[in-house]
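[scheduler] slot 2 assigned
[scheduler] job type: sequence-to-structure, two independent chains
[scheduler] chain ordering preserved from manifest
[runner] begin chain α
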Amino acid sequence: MRPSLLRQGVVTLVAVLVLLSAFSGLATAQSGVGGEITVEEGETVSEVNAVGGAVVVHGTVTGDVSGAAGNVLITGTVGGDVNVATGNLRISGQIDGDVAAGAGSIHLEDGATVDGDFDSGAGEVTIDGTIGGDARIGAETIRLGEAASIAGSLTYDGRLEGNQDAVAGDITRDRTLGPTSVGELQPLASWAIAVYAFVANLLLGAVLLALFPRFSGGVADRVTAEPLKTGLVGLGTLVAVPLSIVLLTVTTVGIPLALAGTLAFLFLAWIGLVYGRFALGMWIVSLQGRDRIGGVDRQWVALVLGLLLGGLLALVPFVGGLLNLLIFLLGLGAVLVGLYEYRGRARGAASRTSPEGSSIG
């Protein structure tokens, strides 16, 4: 079977939208990576951009809904287009624009309305609602329910079942429209998530370098000078802290502490990851023996370089994951050792400035 033009179009469109949203997310009403993005009933937002997790729209989106997610559910109203790559897409609300989707399964439920065109590539597509424009569907199985209505024409490939009288226009089979599986969409989602992660890590790293330049430099130096020590501290922390949090949940009083501890540890782990990749970049940049590279302070060059290398490693199966784990443990350990040493210096300075410290000399 020849490559599906529909499949290529849907995947390319979603890729562009997702990658652009990585840089424009701060200007959107709802955006994110991982977890669940939800527009509650009665809530109105301008648009939704998301990668990973789920997208749920019970309220109103005046613009577009776009992204790559495990599940997409729309029961409310979308004033623009829906452009998604997802495992499952279910629409029971109102879409004023077009729908372009690549998914494992798609269901336009009874009572749902898409005013524009409906383009999809999926394993299974079920139409029980209304499509105001044309429909182009490539799927292994396409089911038209008794309540289905397609005002335009239907161009399809796959096994067409059900109420073909629902189509007001022509019904044409086009064998270039092949089904799109979730597996074909996973590389897209992986790259999109990698872009989001890079942007988020870069922002955190920039804050750390701007606020704590000396501490950041010390973390990188510590990783290079004492990799065994920092790695063991990171490993011990990774084992001990989650175990302690689990033990806290045994008692009712400990549950709130466990929740707070979990959030604090996750944030510390994120800092450790960024610092680990920063240390990798600093080690590479230090081989140049220069404080500035291309007119830019080498710490900033190291941050970008380390994050890029770490992100690329994350896309390499198994080996990349092991290397990133090692980089993370080194960064986490170096941060904790640095904080411990800073605490010791602060105590020493306080004792020297106190009356008792002065008398001791």
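[runner] end chain α
[runner] begin chain β
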Amino acid sequence: MPITETLQKAWDAADESMKSGEPDKALEILRSEAWDACDNNMQKARTLRYAGDAGTMIGEMNTAGQKRHWQKAHKNYRDALNLDPKDKETRRNMNKLASMMDEKAISLGAGMQLFDEGNPTPLGLVAMLVAGMLLLVSFKVISDWLDDTENPVVTLEFSYMPAGSTERTTALVEIELYEDDAPLHVENFIILAEESRYDFTIFHRIIDGFMIQGGDFENRDGSGGYTGKWFGYCDGKQFDSSNNRYSPETCDQSRWTLPDEADNGQLHRPGALAMAKTSAPNTGSSQFYIVPEDSTPSHLDGVHTVFGMVVSGLDHITAISEVPTGNNDRPIDEVRLVRVTVND
């Protein structure tokens, strides 16, 4: 598929910004212009590679935040290779960055790497050996340890323009996911996050004193989105009009939804992460909302599934809830969800 003029201009502008020593500007162009203009995975991969290049450059210029910028850049390269594994330029740039990070003793941001492209690393071989020995010595100890797991935590990177400001703000918000209380919702959210579905989407509906809503990676207006895998529900139903059970083959992917887990005892407190859906049961998919500090929408308890809680950055959620909005509660200046990262 040919590259559109819009996408080529965005790439060229980002490249020019990096050559001019303005990698932050390049990233903004890639997020706000290039990504939306991509028509296929190869174009998305190239955009992510440029984002990795910009992040590498930012890390070189900003030594105080070098670790964070380089880890994000490395993730961009990894995501690019997932979309286009044959891109040699991306692999070269990623390997170069990995060497730079190794010299500075900066981890790659993915925890201890036990496997590299399916093959165990030296650390992986040691880990497997130790695990085997421990298993032989005391299976019960290992089982007890595995049962004592912590909830997963995700980091949401926002870009928004606070009320009364003329400049955009970048904010990081950490959310703990309640894996035991809403396992299917957490699984679905993590799948979509790891597939980069939420990256470069927007929060399309914001109501001050109530909540902020996003997650429509399909249409970006609140009318789209679907689950990361088949959970047995098609538009909230398990059976069609002929009483035949739906399957992934008989239900279009755009109609895949989740079963409700709203009776898990979790309430809509300030900072709550919950699943958006229609008035019908079992219609949650990818859209979600977050409750700001000045809201306690208890009328949603037991109706919408709460599956997480903000543990850091709630002040930014509140600030986002106060941005000016227009028709259909849509922000006048886009509130962008730049990336969702599943923390290891």
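[runner] end chain β
[qc] chain β: The mean pLDDT is 88.
[scheduler] slot 2 released
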